[in-house]
Design a protein that fits this description.
Elements lengths: L4 E10 L2 E11 L4 E5 L6 H9 L6 E6 L8 H4 L2 E4 L11 H11 L5 H11 L12 H14 L4 E5 L7 H18 L2 E5 L3 H7 L2 E6 L2 E7 H6 L1 E6 L1 H5 L6 E6 L7 E6 L9 E4 L3 H16 L10
Parallel strand pairs: 3-7, 3-8, 5-6, 6-7
Antiparallel strand pairs: 1-2, 1-4, 8-9, 10-12, 10-13, 11-12
Helix pairs in contact: 4-5, 5-6
Amino acid sequence: MTPVLEAVGLGKRYGRRSALADVELSVPAGRVVGLVGPNGAGKSTLLQLACGLIAPTAGRIRVHGAEPGVRPDHLARVGYVAQDTPVYPDLTVAEHLRLGARLNPRWDAALAERRLARSELDPRQKAGRLSGGQRAQLALTVAAAKRPDLLILDEPAAALDPLARHAFLDHLMESVTELGATAVLSSHALPDVARVCDHLVVLARGRVQLHGDIGPLLARHARVTGRPADLDALPSAVTVLTRTEPSDGGPATALVRTEHPLPDGPWAVTAPDLEELVLAQLARAENARRPAARPEARR
């Protein structure tokens, strides 16, 4: 089956600055993908490349097997909600829907009306007078009513309060279920990703650090607690991502990656959560960037 989104050796530069480098990625259909990473990791650049808004400077990216943004029929298969959920402030909610119907050949007016009613948006209200949560709901309604096969959302709930963000995520999941679409959600809020996503892409320093279905990814990682000397004796096949040792001499804790269950030993093994896994990957990427400490000169 053709991946919904595939990148091979993908790179993007802005002048001398590299935003993405050697990105290898394959996203299967039917997933809700959480795209996470620190500021400047290249998340927005990757999503803009997937929408065809910008072109790569190296490698290639394909969406539904085709180069993004080249053919009108391909554009109709992708719904995009950009950062800050931009809308036209002087247009009413109803005018947004009429504009969407004129511009999109697969426009589903009945779906748009249902989403509008579900969000309790007044069709007569100008978008410039809507709250942040209402603007996000309107932007998602317009994107979903295109009936896309792929929904791309770039930090759509970043500025929303907890209640509005909760409602937006409910709206997103209802839309994805109704459309049978794949969704890619860029977010800094790891609890949001854990709540709605079943596939994870961790991006840092312009490269993919980890990706895959969340369940199997978590199953290949473990939190190990024991004396520092015990953790030093972990099997050689185990990769230690992060390790902490309290200054008071208490037990040390390591987050490790292993392809097989850890054998019994002088340590306790528990399952990590998604936030621990993501933070460990980001910390590892950051540590890899730092130059090794120079040895102290002898006198």
